[in-house]
Amino acid sequence: MAGTVDRRYQAQREACEAFIASQRHEGWACLATRYDDGGFSGATMDRPALQRLLADIAKIFDKLAKFDMLNQFVTHTGGGVFACPGGIAEGRFIGQRLFEAG
């Protein structure tokens, strides 16, 4: 059974990477950091990679708040929040600076 799960997991990963590659012209890029929780149930929040992802997202929000950039790109609409960034430089992706050290 584990081999079947691993193959399905790998197939999903490859499908996602192929889709991201198909959107490269829109500035999409696959992150170098992987948040894979193979073998952990998606029914729980107690997964190591998910916790790393949430911690990384918190760091991004901290950077946005520090430079007061959060309100610059966020429009509150009802119960949803939608990011509305400006133009992206050639060869970069939305939010790239947030993933850079510093």
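The record above closes out task 2.4. Task 2.5 opens with a second protein, given below.
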Amino acid sequence: MAVSKRSSIDLADQWALNRGYKLVYFNTDLNNLPVYHTNVLMFIGTDIAAIGSNLIREKNIENLLKKNHQVISLSEDEILNFLAYTKYLWQMKNIKDDYNKE
């Protein structure tokens, strides 16, 4: 889990414990700010995972994933493009919502 103002280590730890998982949390840095959601910089599927390793301060995260997954590295530009696209979608949703209010 990426640590940010929007994350709660205690709550996530309890969630993981209740399900028999061990929480792994890490610090991130994107333009001198923490990444606000883990799913912005990584996903973990059944056999494959993609991760923006260069944005994670702890260097063991990618190695943990490589134990059971084929790992695809995401560049900072790819992460930023995702954020830009997400922001665009959010703006379009707000425009649609405003239009539907009329």
